[in-house]
Specification:
By secondary structure, this protein is an alpha+beta fold. It has helices spanning 58-90, 95-111, 117-142; strands at 12-15, 21-24, 32-37, 40-45. It is built from three helices and four strands, in the order ββββααα.
Length: 149
């Protein structure tokens, strides 16, 4: 039996490379896809016009996106600071910022520079974390902490 309900089911089912099923029921607005993975169902609005989600869920989805942005921003800040701190203990204090800049240039080249505001926010927060790690290592070395160099 297929995940969409078997033969003759009017829903369109595609299987992605990760094994996740994309189920697109015909009674939903265009662009609204339901992801079924690990026994859970989540509605995701991909390119659907405003007001397309049923039962006035737009406000709830907006609040969820804001919460997601806050959590991901904190995660990006902590991860880039931590990795940058370790890299800068071994290399000069500016290394993590340079590596982060090269990584971002690579991503921009691959995407053609087409990032959304959500993505740009995470990129900027990550740049702050990388720069802060370099400045922290620099300040610690000036105060006499030699780390690994």
């Amino acid at each position: 039996m297929s995940p969409a309900g078997g033969r003759g089911d009017p829903r369109t089912v595609r299987r992605s490379f990760a094994g996740m099923f994309h189920i697109e029921p015909p009674d939903r607005p265009a662009g609204l896809t339901i992801f079924a993975a690990a026994g859970t169902l989540e509605a995701s609005r991909m390119g659907a016009p405003a007001g397309a989600l049923p039962n006035g869920d737009d406000e709830r989805k907006s609040l969820a996106m804001i919460a997601l942005l806050i959590v991901l921003s904190l995660l990006a800040l902590v991860v880039t600071f931590g990795v940058g701190f370790i890299v800068n203990m071994i290399a000069p204090w500016w290394t993590s910022s340079a590596v982060y800049a090269v990584l971002i240039l690579y991503v921009l080249a691959k995407t053609g520079g087409h990032l959304k505001a959500f993505d740009w926010t995470l990129v900027c927060i990550g740049a702050v974390g990388a720069a802060a790690s370099g400045l922290t290592i620099r300040a610690l070395r000036r105060r006499g902490f030699r780390m690994f160099r």
